[in-house]
Write a structure and sequence with these properties.
6% of the residues lie in helices and 46% in strands. It has 276 residues and is mainly beta.
Length: 276
């Protein structure tokens, strides 16, 4: 029944978006709950809704089969093969290779091996795969990026993500090395997503110890604590923790050591994260 409802939704969207747009209308069919990201004169979004995976970790069975980057009046399209989907809501635009131009970063889910982090180079005339982390290794296993920053303090932008945020909750740091995403460090027991929710931002980035290197503030796997994690020097260290009276449901703001959150009951709380 769910698959039939999803199919009808996609058909309705195709009609609504495609009317009067000719043969390229299918290229413009966007993910129903997808976000639009902008950086460096580029606009990016996920397209080609598909139900070929059916995991539903983000609240429905619709994933994306491709993404579009618009720049200087031109539209570039990248499509996956039938063996994978983009299990995501956004295309992150960030400069990982240090060339001054953003790359596209998306969660790619292999139908038989689960999710990986995929990085794409945005050229003048085409989008090309640049690097990919190893897939988790099992179908219906997901990961959620935290963000891109100089977490190690080395001057190189790195990518942080939580692998299996509903199971082990492994917060990992990756650096781009040629055409590979190499794991630098990890620490387990944290989450940046609630199962079935569309909100991808249950963790935030800020410099809590004021040392000039970005840190990550993130709930514990139980969502009953907030922790500040540093990866300075390439090593994961817990800078401090703070208990939360109720489970963290949304991360609203981070101002220094003060985190503003919403709980499962809808209460809004300010939580101070102290140094250990």
């Amino acid at each position: 029944m769910l698959r039939h409802r999803v199919g009808r939704l996609i058909m309705a969207m195709a009609f609504a978006i495609g009317c009067g747009r000719g043969a390229q209308a299918q290229d413009l069919l966007r993910l129903p709950d997808g976000e639009v990201t902008r950086s460096g004169g580029m606009v990016a979004y996920l397209v080609d809704p598909t139900t070929r995976y059916g995991h539903g970790v983000l609240g429905d069975a619709i994933e994306a089969g491709g993404f579009v980057v618009e720049r200087d009046g031109h539209r570039l399209l990248f499509r996956l093969g039938a063996d994978a989907v983009f299990e995501d809501r956004r295309v992150r635009l960030a400069d990982l290779d240090g060339d001054g131009q953003p790359e596209a970063i998306v969660v790619k889910a292999h139908l038989d091996r689960g999710a990986s982090l995929a990085v794409y180079r945005i050229g003048r005339h085409a989008i090309e795969p640049l690097a990919e982390s190893p897939a988790i290794g099992q179908r219906n296993r997901w990961l959620n990026p935290v963000g891109v920053a100089d977490f190690g303090g080395s001057g190189q932008a790195m990518l942080a993500a939580v692998v299996t945020p509903h199971l082990a909750g492994s917060l990992r740091l990756y650096r781009l090395s040629g055409t590979a995403l190499v794991e630098v460090s990890r620490i387990d027991g944290f989450t940046n997503h609630r199962l079935g929710e569309r909100d991808l931002d249950l963790a935030q980035i800020g410099d809590l110890d004021e040392d000039g290197t970005p840190d990550i503030v993130i709930p514990s796997l139980s969502r009953q604590d907030l922790a500040a994690i540093s990866f300075k020097g390439g090593r994961a260290v817990v800078l401090g923790k703070a208990p939360v009276k109720q489970r963290v449901a949304r991360f609203l703001a981070l101002r220094g050591p003060r985190a503003t959150i919403e709980t499962d009951t809808g209460a809004r709380l300010d939580v101070m994260i102290g140094r250990d």
